[in-house]
Design goal:
Strand content: over 45%
Number of domains: 2
CATH superfamily of the largest domain: TonB-dependent receptor, beta-barrel domain
Number of strands: 36
Structural class: mainly beta
Oligomer: single chain
């Protein structure tokens, strides 16, 4: 019996004239861009972020059509002056992606897994910089050092390449990632699944909801999973409990209020601890301490989302989130060699607790005058974060890697911490976005934002307190020209800002971008190309002469991002991407690294994923076959460019089989050939890239 194709809706083949138009438009944009970029060598740009709103099509297609430029102005992707990728639920399911790095690793400009088997955080960078994360448009902070998100909680993941300070506040210039929460939907629906896989993985999950009453004005949804698993190395675990409940009230067609509560409990390990530099061991070999190897996360979150249409073009939206977070980790890591076959080691631990509150409210007014269409968005944001963090460090017994003997853990209560602090951040912001459309072809978008941030740090070991106040403006400007209804070109300028150490000027970014987007009429496809030149100044570096932090750094990244999302026929779909990144350290005090490449920034990256549907026949059900390849060029481990990894190609695969109309069996394999290389290393220990992992899932939907 037939079914809808996994990951897409039926699409017409791409006509030859469409491909020709893409080539002509892309050639024009690329030909014009280099001169403009050279003219901006001393000012680089950061694009404001874009939030893509989830739709029912996210469940059936890999090609999204709309974004929200700012906090809620839904805009066609062709009309948005920014480079953006939307990873829909259909794509995530088709690839079998189960964590944030897997979800992002087929997106242009995004590098993942550069810390190898260090599993403390979600490690990804966009256009050469650490990226900030958002949930429903509200900041989660930097992914590096943050909580590893549970992707089953989200409908889709949106990647915006370029800065987002004008819209969403302080951030680095490379880009941002926004997670869109699952919300209650009208009518009855649901799914339940069970998964088994490599490293003794056992997982069950569910996601279902319905209306309360026949009117459909009140709906609920419950989502959760329970996992019992290990990592690919010995003496590890990867256990998790996640539960989320949502309630949506729609008293009228013009008003909606959603309440979402979720609990995330992770009981894992921080990483393998590394292997001695220059050795070659199986990934399973563990040189840490089994009795001192833990990574915990306990987070409770409450989210409110509200919107109301007053009529006459005026709408109001508001969102707020409160989180209570506790995390800890402790492990023993390899720090070097002491001769022969003996590796030196150290204990390292951290314990952190805190709360986070952020809220946003905005008004949008749509109108037209004199043949000009106008959309205006104005809003205010407030936030408050409190965190206490304590860290311990001490030497551990060395270990002979030819005959490892473990020595046990330590009692942190008997060890004095080397650092302990309490941090209080209070922020507020005003922002304004304006979009004007002239003659249906020229679209001008502009944004201004002013952020106030008060920071107070207390050293709990000395009782010394330091504080700082920041008052920063950021702006962006974009112009889009609709060459035709299916082809647009754009140029944009934007700024970013992020506070550094107390007493130092904030780090600022600028970016200039030129791009072209093409969506052939009558097809389900989207092609995009973007050239950019970005820089970040006032980067904090330790001056080797004074050993004090100073804003003495400046870096620059110029590059090209290409992306294609195409449902070529009702059977074949693909996503493809390529990125070229030319990074340079322009200024770095007296360290001598000027002219070098940035660490963890490969010059070339490329990816391709193909899905092919094979309709059922007779007793055989429908099948979908997926195959992907990811290429990451060589990158350096340090700014001195003395250590680097090799270029590598990783293959992934998936298969799904429709057992019955409502039951599906799927199989996914990451790193199909078990490619092995050092993803991070050279500082006493090497960390390998993730190895091959296989999982099988039985899913029932209704």
């Amino acid at each position: 019996m037939g079914r809808e194709s996994i990951g897409r809706r039926p699409a017409a083949p791409i006509p030859a004239r469409g491909l020709k138009a893409l080539l002509l438009g892309g050639t024009a944009a690329l030909a014009l861009a280099p001169g403009a970029l050279r003219a901006q060598e001393d000012q680089t740009v950061t694009l404001a972020p874009i939030t893509v709103e989830g739709t029912e099509d996210d469940q059936t297609t890999i090609v999204a059509t709309e974004t929200s430029a700012g906090s809620g102005m839904a805009t066609d992707i062709l009309d948005t002056p920014a480079s953006v990728s939307v990873i829909t639920a259909a794509e995530i399911r088709a690839r079998g992606a189960t964590d944030v790095e897997q979800v992002l690793q087929y997106s242009p400009g995004v590098v993942t897994d550069f810390y190898g088997s260090d599993d403390r955080f979600d490690f990804f960078r966009i256009r050469g910089f650490d990226a900030n994360s958002y949930r429903d448009g509200l900041s989660l902070g930097s992914a590096f050092g943050g909580v590893r998100e549970e992707t089953y909680a989200y409908e889709r993941v949106e990647v915006v390449r370029g800065a987002n300070s004008t819209t969403f506040g302080v951030s680095d210039p490379g880009g941002s990632v926004n997670f869109v929460s699952k919300l209650p939907k009208q009518s009855r629906y649901g799914e339940a699944y069970a998964t088994v896989g490599s490293f003794d993985k056992k997982e069950v999950g569910f996601d279902f909801g319905d209306d309360i009453g026949e009117a459909g004005t009140l709906s609920w949804r419950v989502t959760g999973l329970l996992r019992d698993a290990e990592k690919e190395y010995d003496h590890s675990r990867d256990d998790e409990t996640f539960l989320m409940a949502g309630l949506t009230w729609r008293p009228t067609d013009l008003t909606s209020l959603s309440l979402v509560i979720d609990h995330l409990d992770k009981d894992g390990v921080p990483g393998s601890g590394g292997h001695p530099v220059g050795t070659d061991f199986d990934r399973s070999v563990f040189f840490g301490e089994p009795d001192f190897n833990y990574r915990g996360t306990d987070r409770d979150t409450l989210t409110l989302l509200f919107d109301h249409d007053f009529g006459g073009g005026l709408t109001f939206g508001a969102s707020a989130r409160y989180s209570d977070i506790a995390t800890d980790f402790g492990y023993v890591y390899v720090g070097g060699t002491s001769g022969g076959t003996t590796a030196t080691r150290s204990y390292y631990a951290n314990d952190s607790q805190g709360t986070d509150f952020v809220a946003d409210a905005h008004l949008q007014y749509d109108t037209a005058f004199g043949g000009v269409e106008s959309r205006t968005l104005g809003g205010i944001e407030v936030s408050r974060t409190e965190q206490t963090s304590t860290s311990w460090f001490t030497g551990a017994d060395p270990i002979d890697w030819t005959n490892p003997v473990y020595s046990g853990g330590i009692d942190l209560g008997s060890l004095a911490p080397y650092a302990a602090s309490r941090t209080e951040d209070e922020g507020s912001a005003l922002y304004l976005q304006q979009e004007l459309t002239f003659a249906g072809r020229w679209i001008v978008t502009a944004g201004l934002r002013h952020d106030w941030l008060d920071v107070e740090r207390t050293n709990l070991l000395t009782s010394a307190t330091s504080s700082a106040s920041y008052s920063e403006d950021t702006a962006r400007l974009g112009v889009t020209y609709k060459v035709s209804p299916d082809l647009s070109v754009y140029g944009s300028y934007a700024e970013s800002v992020v506070p550094a150490s107390i007493g130092l000027d904030p780090e600022r970014g600028e970016q200039l971008e030129l791009g072209v987007k093409y969506r052939p009429v009558g097809t389900n496809a989207l092609f995009s190309a973007a050239l950019y030149d970005l820089s970040k100044t006032n980067i904090t570096r330790t001056n080797p002469a004074t050993l004090q932090d100073e804003t003495i750094g400046e870096v620059r990244v110029r590059g090209l991002d290409l992306e294609a999302r195409v449902e070529m026929t009702d059977r074949l779909a693909l996503t493809a991407g390529y990125s070229w990144l030319d990074s340079e350290i322009v200024e770095n005090g007296t360290s001598g690294n000027e002219g070098n490449q940035l660490a963890f920034v490969p010059e070339h990256m490329a990816s391709l994923w193909l899905n092919y549907d094979l309709p059922g026949a007779g007793a055989r059900g429908d099948m979908t076959l997926g195959l992907g390849a990811r290429y990451t060029g060589s990158y350096n481990f340090d700014d001195a460019n003395t250590m680097s990894t090799k270029a590598a190609v990783i293959y992934d695969a998936s298969l799904s089989y429709q057992v019955s109309q409502a039951t599906e069996f799927s199989l996914s394999v990451t790193n199909l050939t078990d490619e092995k290389h050092v993803a991070y290393g050279g500082f006493g220990a090497d960390f390998y890239n993730p190895g091959r992992a296989i999982s099988a899932t039985l899913r029932r939907t209704w």
